[in-house]
Amino acid sequence: MTRFTVNNQPVQYKLDASTPLLWALRDASNLTGTKYGCGTGDCGACTVDIDGAAVRSCQVTIGAIEGSFVTTIEGLAENRAHPVQRAFLAANVGQCGYCIPGMVMAASALLRKNRNPSDEDIAAAITNLCRCGIYPRLIEAVGRAARLARGEDDNAPEEPEDQQTAVEPET
Question: Is this model's pTM higher than 0.85 or not?
Answer without folding.
Answer: yes
